[in-house]
Write the structure tokens for this entry.
Amino acid sequence: MTLRNSFLWLIITVTILIGSSSLAHEGHDHAEVDPSVRVWTFADTGAHIHGAYVAARDGKVQVRRTDGKIIALEIEKLTSADKDWIERKVTQVKTINENAKSSNGITKLIVANAPVKPAIADTFEPFAKLKAIQYRQDDKFFYVESNSMPDHRMMVGITAWQQQVPIPQPYFGDNAWRIPLEPIVAKNPLSAKSHFFRGAIALAANGVPIFNPIKNDGRTDTLLAGELDEFGGHCGRGDDYHYHIAPTHLQEIIGKDKPVAYALDGYPIYGYTEPDGSEVRGLDEFNGHSTPTLGYHYHATKKYPYLNGGFHGEVKEVGGQVDPQPRAGGVREALPPLRGAKITGFESKDNKQFSIKVEVGRETRYVNYLLNEDGSVKFDFVDGSGKVKSETYSPRQRGPGGGNDRPPRKEPPRRDPPPPRNATPRDAVSSKTNAGFVVSSSAIGRDGRISSEFTCDGQSASPPIEWKGAPSGTKTIAISLWHTAPDQEKSYWLVYNIPATIDHLEKNAKTTGTAGLNDKKKTSYDPMCSKGPGAKTYHISAYALSTEVKLPKGSDNRAAFLKAVKDVTLAETTLDFIYERAR
């Protein structure tokens, strides 16, 4: 007996019928992107699971998730599109097995191991091919890296301008955007009418973040206020470009049958019509709905809320924004609005040289700027007479959330001011930063202002402060609340030697860590009580330290602290906020 006649070679054909062309294309073929993954949708909730078909039996379908784990889903709980797909698949496999036998009776085994790629990649793939973005994934999230600079002219058409300009942002590595691969329906959905006035709520297919259409004041529609350009975008206080309405113009590249963006809860955002071109009906308060073939998804609309008006899916809100999300890397202080200005021109060369044309009354002005190799930016401000004022700014990291459209400081901006008297130079402490190390406070509202409860206008209570993401090797945490006045650096609160196992200070905290001296030489919180007019910017800095800090009692002020931790700081992060004395 020959070997050929002795063995029956079974070839198992696991031909994965095509996953959807996007997160919302469940039940449709997807061979052009990846033949091994599709999106499975639960009919009652619209929740999604990404995975490859393995087998169907006993009323259940086995699915290999993107992390490699095989799970069983009850077929009866899936959408009708999924049920039809499974029925066709079972029939197809049966037909293949029956036809696979050769004339000599041997069954041919064909093993197909196509790489697993989540369906969400179909939205971002066109821009990845254009090298505008990069993406990757792990078992829970889809990550998108970009510099937030779209391939279209920016700023033109803005009639309410805060003098910010587009500068590439560091949304890479640990500072990349992340979107859940498997969105979870929220138990208590949050509306964008009352939440998320800071930071992004979605990410466009070209890697540009999308903010709430309503400003941080909770009432102003940025589109109707004339703050947006012809593509629905503008720049935040970190010179970070972002959209405030759905970027439907991207359909020219990705097609009208695909999402133009993904909300940060993991659900896709489609254009003004359904993917098949039909009219959109029955949207909920968040501009979303569920359909048998797509499950839950959002839509763009030409009236408010323009895109997802909140989150059907689960997200975490910290400090008025979705948390976590990347930090912007600005170079300048935020500027006040320029009244009567209209942006009429924008030019760029090699993505390094830019020029913005501004009409102010009958005067034509220009803001020309050049990105230097060291990360600094050289500005030439050209007034109506042709006079040029040049300034060069070095990189400075802004707060979390892609730039935060907070109110600008009312003080005139200063470039590289001389060290204030009796102040410790900023470089006296390590400048190390870590994108994952973040400090926040529930005492700071969505408008970036601290509650009066924590100032001399209120109860003078010390604010609650939270932090997370301290790097490996951190032994202690320190917190400093401070402010740079015109002629000195003022310290209001210093707490150090907080054990690394602790991640917050409660309101009126008095027993955690070691209290250092404030500027009034007291080991307590000194509530802010501004004497000068107007709003001022204050700072909460957190330091992750590799050791305990040893300072003599009575000499442990902020200056001594910064000097002591210069060589033991593993990471530091700063949260800016605004306080204006009540009158």
Summary: The chain has five helices and 32 strands. The first strand starts at residue 38 and ends at 41.
